[in-house]
Design goal:
2 helices, mainly alpha, 63 residues
Length: 63
């Protein structure tokens, strides 16, 4: 039982040190916000293009 606790303690200490050394931690929120902004902009651009294409298609005289 003591060996298992030592192994668990060593694993937890190693993981904690790796997390502290990770320079990119905390940037995930910033990355998600930027990606969400790009997605919203892309959806808006597609909506504008579809509206203009539909309007143009409706104004085409067939006869």
């Amino acid at each position: 039982m003591l060996n298992e606790l030592r192994l668990l303690w060593a694993w937890a200490a190693t993981r904690a040190e790796l997390v502290r050394e990770d320079a990119e931690r905390g940037e995930i929120v910033q990355t998600v916000v930027i990606i969400a902004a790009f997605v919203i902009a892309a959806i808006a651009i597609v909506a504008i293009l579809v509206t203009k294409a539909t309007s143009t298609a409706n104004n085409v005289k067939t006869q």
